[in-house]
Fold this protein.
Amino acid sequence: MDAPPKRLGRPKDDQLTARRTDEILDVAARLFAARGYPNTDLQVVADELGAGKGTIYRYFPSKRELFLAAVDRGMQRLTAYIAGSMTAADALDQIEQGIRGYLEFFQANPALAELLIQERAEFRDRAKPTYCEYRDANVEKFEGLVRGLVAAGRLRDLPLEVICGVLGDLLYGTMFTNYFAGRSRSLEQQTGEIVEVVLVGLLTDAEREKRRSAEAPEGSAP
């Protein structure tokens, strides 16, 4: 007599899993940012979700993995936001849009800045912080824009690592200064200042003249 067929378990619902993962990370990111990593027990996260602590462990085996996943997701969203903001046809305008998108994201998501600080404080054993991993993995597009501008004679022919490194460090510092000091200057003002000091300062004389002519009121003397 043949054995009865095995009953299959409940099919895995990938959408439900992704939604539940997002819910957990939303709550965890908020609590870690507000309470600090050492003071945030997974039971608190579970209580906020109205779930058992075991539910958290089914998705994230440890508090460390939950925290790092929250940081990683924040960086994923930052990367996507910047990419989505760079819609202009002109490479120089794309860079300006990327600068604004970066500052805008952190203005709307200050918890990520706090998590980046905590990661550095709590996990010094990591070879490279999450922020640096994403920065290094996504610098290629920016370098391509700069390379094209240099080749077109619109930016000075400086080493790519110098141009990209200085601008990246400036944005990183500006983001944290905004977070710590609670700056109230508009995104437009901050973006304009960075563009004026860094990008316009890198432009060739010919490109500077072109920009001055374009910005001059119609009919005015050159």
Notes: Confidence is low (pLDDT under 50) at residues 6-11. The first helix runs from residue 14 to 35. The chain has two domains: 14-61, 70-215. The chain is about 75% helix and 0% strand.
